[in-house]
Amino acid sequence: MFSSTSRCSTRLGSLRFTGRSVDVILRTPRGQQRSVSRDVNFSCHTTSASKRCDRRDLLSRVFCTKSSARLQQVQSQHDTPPPAYQPPKSGFLSQLPPSVVPYAELVRLDKPVGTYYLFFPCLFSTLLAGIHATPITPPSTIVGTTMLFLTGALVMRGAGCTINDLWDRNLDPHVARTRLRPIARGAVTPKQAVIFTGGQLLTGLAVLLQFPFDCLYYGIPSLALVATYPLAKRVTYYPQFVLGLTFSWGAIMGFPALGVDLLSDSAALKAAACLYTSNIAWTVLYDMIYAHMDIKDDVKAGIKSIALAHERNTKTVLTGLAAVQVALLGAAGAAVGAGPLFYIGSCGSAVATLGAMIWRVKLKEVGNCWWWFRHGCWFTGGGIAFGLFGDYLARLLGWYDEKKQKQTGKQSLQA
């Protein structure tokens, strides 16, 4: 037996041998040490070789016992069930009948930011088409078309959310942010959700029929994208690109909605193509920030996203997307001959707001990502819309014509 004091160390701690007593010194997460004294009975033969008994076996037995105890303690601390669902006690949803609340939550009525993101490309294309149209589109038509687009965005965004939750009903329970969604928690059955989706799509069709008939040819193909996006996250790390194709579709719709034939008007077709691609870049940008909210749960659930693919260089990718968005936005304006108010208001505000968001967003903080996702909609989308409206108003009031007349007069005087 050991009669002198000796010491062995490992990652978990160390053993101090004193005769038949063993002091177990454990390292705690804060760097503190905790000593536990234990009596250990073991025997060794008295030969000189046997005096060098293998202490590693003893060390392993002691630490396995202590590590198992510590592991059970940690597991017991994390076995507490997550908070149960609580019906809304404030806001719009709290005023609805209890039977309606799950469906309102299903279409995200309490989180309308997605509707705004779907609506803004429609507004951009309406104002850009209004600038391009000859004669210029009257304000009443612009307002009426905008209201129809807002209604359609509300309906179709809700349908998209329902379809998404149907596809993800087996994944949502494993993600902290989505585990209490109506289908995931069983408040709405898949069959009820399918019937509800059918009603939403019929409502969306009714809204689409209020536009010129040609809009049907442009609007109906977008339904394939609405149904495809939830599947993309299972097969590619870039489902945000598919979301961009879907959410940016309104950047095309404003032109046929105001009677502009894209197939016979090359300038309008170029403007619509540039605006559509610009909005795809914008969608990927803001949804990449949004994806950072779920990045840890996505790894566990096996969900793919661009945030996982570019976790180490996210801000570099965001900067590139912002540059693409602004460049294509400027190209869309150039295609229809937009004026300085567009470039200063729309392109300038996009550079300022996107730059501030990329610089200041804290990708490791869920709350900060949500704040920029929610407010960035209005910072960037509102700025672009404001610039387009200013350019439309300048053309409507003839400000650009007066400027051209003054420049022509000066040139004639100099001649």
From TrEMBL:
Keywords linked to the UniProt accession: Isoprene biosynthesis, Membrane, Mitochondrion, Mitochondrion inner membrane, Transferase, Transmembrane, Transmembrane helix, Ubiquinone biosynthesis
Transmembrane segments: 116-136, 142-167, 241-260, 266-286, 317-335, 341-359, 371-390
Reactions it catalyzes: an all-trans-polyprenyl diphosphate + 4-hydroxybenzoate = a 4-hydroxy-3-(all-trans-polyprenyl)benzoate + diphosphate
InterPro entries, sorted: HB_polyprenyltransferase-like, Prenyltransferase, UbiA_prenyltransferase, UbiA_prenylTrfase_CS, UbiA_sf
Names of required cofactors: Mg(2+)
Pathway stated in the Swiss-Prot or TrEMBL entry: Secondary metabolite biosynthesis; terpenoid biosynthesis; Cofactor biosynthesis; ubiquinone biosynthesis
Family the entry assigns: Belongs to the UbiA prenyltransferase family.
UniProt cross-references to NCBIfam families, sorted A to Z: ubiA_proteo (TIGR01474)
Protein name according to UniProt: 4-hydroxybenzoate polyprenyltransferase, mitochondrial
Origin species: Phyllosticta citribraziliensis
Lineage of the organism: Eukaryota, Fungi, Dikarya, Ascomycota, Pezizomycotina
